[in-house]
Amino acid sequence: MIQEFKDFIAKGNVMDLAVGIIIGAAFTAIVSSLVSDLLNPIIGLVLGGVDFTSMYVVLSGAVPAGAGLDVARESGAAIFAYGAFITACINFLIIAFVVFMLVKTVNNLKAKAEAPDEVAPEVDTGPSELDVLLQIRDSLAKK
Known about the structure:
By secondary structure, the protein is mostly helical. Helices cover about 70% and strands about 5% of the residues. It has a two-stranded antiparallel sheet. The relative contact order is 0.07. The mean pLDDT is about 80.
């Protein structure tokens, strides 16, 4: 059973998956920073200078006026944090688009690798060495 486990781990697919997960986690951190640090301030500016990620509606309970999302969550009130949800949706769309572009690129590379090489047109290079030797033999045989 230990040997089977070692064989399973040593397979290329498992290692590829592990590398993909690590790179995916790093890429998710980059996209999260892009959305929270670059896109959300621009969206917030369009919405009148409001911090987009902290937008919420109190459904029930008491939240101090002007409190941020963290304070509202800690107060125990039921809140509808639509700003955080929209931020998560933006993150998802960006990650999904990049994954789509990556898969499309890999598929194109695979298609090019699997496509048969274009056959170069045959060029008449004259008689082969064998043809010349046969002609010499035939001409010597006639004499």
